[in-house]
Amino acid sequence: MIAKLKGLVDSVDTDSAVIDVGGVGYLVSASARTLRDLAVGGQATMLVETIVREDAISLYGFLDTAERDWFRILTTVQGVGARVALSILSTLSPDEIARAIAAQDKGTLSRPAGVGPKLAARLATELKDKAAAFGIAAAPVSESKTGVPVAAAGSINEDAISALVNLGYKRVEAFGAVARVTQRLGAEAKLDAVIRAGLQELAR
Description:
By secondary structure, this protein is an alpha+beta fold. It folds into three domains: 60 residues, CATH 2.40.50.140; 72 residues, DNA polymerase, domain 1, CATH 1.10.150.20; 68 residues, Ubiquitin-associated (UBA) domain (Helicase, Ruva Protein, domain 3), CATH 1.10.8. The chain is built from nine helices and seven strands. The strands form two sheets. It has a five-stranded mixed β-barrel with strand order 1-2-3-5-4. Helix 2 crosses helix 3. The longest helix is centred in the last third of the chain and has 15 residues. The chain is elongated, with a radius of gyration of 20 Å. This is Holliday junction branch migration complex subunit RuvA. Keywords: Cytoplasm, DNA damage, DNA recombination, DNA repair, DNA-binding.
C-alpha cells in the first residue's frame, strides 16, 4: 500500500494532481483545499490513502494528518464515499467539520456538494463522539431530553448560543465562541457575561 509520496508536482487538475516520484507519475485525487496549495514544478510531500477495488487502485492525497484522518472518519459513514468525503473537505476545514458536528449544525454539514439534509443529519449523529479528538475547543457536550446538544454548563450556554444566533451569527460560530468563553470564565459565569465575552470572541 502507498502511504506517502514525495516528489515534484507534475500537473494539477480540478480534482487531482500528478506527483512525479523518480520519473513515475502518480495520479492523486485531493480536496480543492489541498490542490490550491500545490504548485506545478514544486516539491510536495503527500500523505496517501490507497483504496483498492476490483477494477481500480485509487490514491487520495493530503498535505496534513488532520485532513487525512477526517477523510478516513467521514468514509465510515454510510453514504459517504471517497468523492463525497473530498467534497466535504473541499468546503470545510477539519476544524470546521469538528465544530459543526459538535454543534450539531446540520446546515453547515449540508453545504458541500453531494451532502443532503439526511446525510448531514447522519454525519452529525454518528460522528459526534469523534469531534472532540480533532482540535475543537469545546466544553463537554451532552444531549437534552429533546436530543439537542447542550454544553455541560447547562442552559446558560445554550441560552448564550441562542442569543448569538439571534444576533445573526451562525450556530457553529456561536457554539465555538461560547465553548471557548466558558473554558476561560468557568462554568459559574453569568449569562450576560458569557454573551458579552462571546461577542468579543466573534469580533476578533
